Amino acid sequence: MTDELETIGFHDVDVSLELLSVPFESGREFVSHPLLALVVGPDVANALALPKDSFDPALAYVEEAIGKYWSEGPFELAVNLGCVSAKKP
Predict the structure, then answer these.
(1) This model's pTM is above 0.85
(2) Which domain holds residue 51?
(3) 27, 44, 46, 48: which has the highest count of C-beta atoms within 10 A?
(4) What is the pLDDT of residues 25-81, one digit of tens each?
(5) Please, which residues bridge with residue 18 across strands?
(6) Domain total in the chain
């Protein structure tokens, strides 16, 4: 990413990445949390370039699987958080 930004004229490019852990008491708690519907789901759909009508069934399957297999056990979501800063004269 640094090289791409410098190629288009940015200077003093700084890229940082941090791995965060978001713990949930159970898979059911994660599935019902707004984080899945508002952040994780749309982000995955955009990354895969899926139309909404094909993504919704896939997300429903993931929600059901997580709800079943981690229904009572702890569930942890790992999130890579990236930040880029740069200057353009």
Answers:
(1) no
(2) 2-87
(3) 27
(4) 988 888 888 887 777 777 777 777 777 777 778 778 878 888 788 888 888 988 888
(5) 81
(6) 1
